[in-house]
Design a protein that fits this description.
Helices cover about 70% and strands about 0% of the residues. It is mainly α and about 110 residues long. The chain has one domain: 434 Repressor (Amino-terminal Domain) (Orthogonal Bundle), CATH 1.10.260.40.
Length: about 110
């Protein structure tokens, strides 16, 4: 599992700076930097904090960090769980938008 890659990808997608991610996750920015450089393996608590700050399920963060050799070790139920999380994330509209036009469009679909 390459959490360094996962956090870098997720942070890039979110458009967040490293310090902002650390602040939102309640982690030291140096610790987040070390994770992204691959010099520290995050604890489960840190993974959950990072995924919460990135507004994504921790399963998806794990999926982003999956290496080919990891898949041979996973059982099919774990892979299915990851796939379901990804599916839910892709189909869920962001609820944190402040754009009135987006809210209007959402209401007009009902």
């Amino acid at each position: 599992m390459d959490y360094a890659k996962a956090v870098r990808i997720a942070r890039a997608i979110s458009g967040m700076q490293q310090k902002e991610l650390a602040d939102r996750a309640g982690l030291n920015s140096s610790y987040v930097s070390l994770i992204e450089m691959g010099k520290r393996k995050p604890s489960l608590k840190a993974v959950r904090a990072l995924s919460g700050a990135l507004e994504m399920p921790s399963d998806l963060l794990a999926l982003l960090g999956t290496e080919p050799e990891d898949l041979s070790l996973a059982d099919s139920s774990e892979v299915e769980k990851l796939a379901k999380s990804l599916f839910e994330v892709l189909l869920t509209e962001p609820s944190h938008t402040n754009d009135p036009k987006a809210k209007q469009k959402k209401r007009s679909r009902s």
